[in-house]
């Protein structure tokens, strides 16, 4: 994706990257760059946020913010790009600067809470969400509220927030999967199973939900694979998960058989299943 973007910019003479002209000096580049942002930076910003490589987007917004400091759209772009690049600590700092800006919004505070959770700073994330008026209702806010309630083991509140979040989006697969995993971690295996099926109804290709569904069924002693759309590799991996679930429940012989099926099903060498099976051999023999 990055090459067509750069080619377009070079052809238009908009952005003096070194890839376009090795001889152009830095001051000229900066003047061109400032001109672009002064006239119409929004379109290019959107391209960098959505289509560019995350690291390239970070570099772009760092430089843009340095040339034209204090522009909240560039500050947001940098913070969002740092999240995309998984530079979570820097992203938290960047979103905090956005929130401190005079033109910041409640959506910016939600974005800061998200960055803080990604950086495993749950306490500050909760404080940030608590600072947002309850009248500000959004899918992202309630998804984060649910995650924090989960972390606090406040299950009733978590369920309420998850349900609200699901109702605020047309693409609920991700939050349904999180909700199902929450139920799984609490030991509500049948409730988790229902939520994973619902997840896959919205996104049949989500392998994480398939694997979680197998975990929920295995925890209930149900060692048959559900009827799902899956590749041969996925089937082998799900059999592996099911086998480990059986062993965890003490059904070692069943687990051994499932691991053997996983190895046989996989089109290539399945090292993880083979290692698990080898570890079980002495146990089963004895």
Automatic annotation (TrEMBL):
It comes from the Bacteria. InterPro entries: TPR-like_helical_dom_sf (IPR011990), TPR_rpt (IPR019734). Keywords: Lipoprotein, TPR repeat. TPR repeats lie at residues 173-206. This is Lipoprotein, putative. It comes from Salipiger bermudensis (strain DSM 26914 / JCM 13377 / KCTC 12554 / HTCC2601) (Pelagibaca bermudensis).
């Amino acid at each position: 994706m990055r090459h067509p973007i750069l080619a377009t910019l070079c052809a238009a003479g908009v952005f003096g990257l070194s890839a376009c002209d090795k001889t152009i000096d830095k001051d000229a580049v900066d003047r061109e760059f400032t001109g672009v942002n002064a006239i119409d930076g929004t379109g290019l910003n959107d391209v960098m946020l959505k289509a560019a490589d995350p690291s390239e987007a970070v570099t772009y917004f760092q430089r843009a913010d340095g040339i034209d400091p204090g522009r909240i759209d560039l500050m947001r772009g940098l913070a969002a790009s740092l999240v995309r690049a998984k530079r979570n600590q820097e992203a938290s700092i960047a979103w905090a600067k956005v929130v401190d800006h005079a033109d910041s919004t409640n959506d910016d505070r939600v974005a800061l809470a998200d960055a803080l959770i990604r950086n495993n700073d749950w306490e500050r994330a909760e404080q940030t969400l608590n600072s947002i008026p309850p009248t500000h209702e959004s899918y992202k806010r309630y998804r984060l509220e649910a995650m924090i309630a989960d972390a606090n083991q406040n299950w009733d509140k978590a369920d309420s927030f998850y349900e609200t979040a699901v109702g605020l989006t047309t693409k609920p697969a991700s939050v349904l999967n999180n909700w199902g995993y929450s139920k799984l971690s609490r030991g509500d295996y049948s409730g988790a199973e229902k939520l994973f099926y619902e997840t896959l109804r919205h996104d049949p290709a989500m392998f994480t939900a398939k694997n979680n569904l197998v975990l929920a069924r295995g925890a209930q002693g149900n060692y048959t694979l559900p009827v799902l759309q899956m590749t041969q590799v996925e089937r082998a991996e799900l059999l592996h998960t099911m086998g480990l679930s059986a062993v965890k429940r003490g059904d070692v012989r069943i687990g051994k058989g499932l691991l053997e099926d996983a190895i046989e099903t996989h089109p290539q060498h399945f090292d993880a299943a083979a290692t698990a099976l080898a570890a079980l051999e002495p146990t089963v023999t004895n």
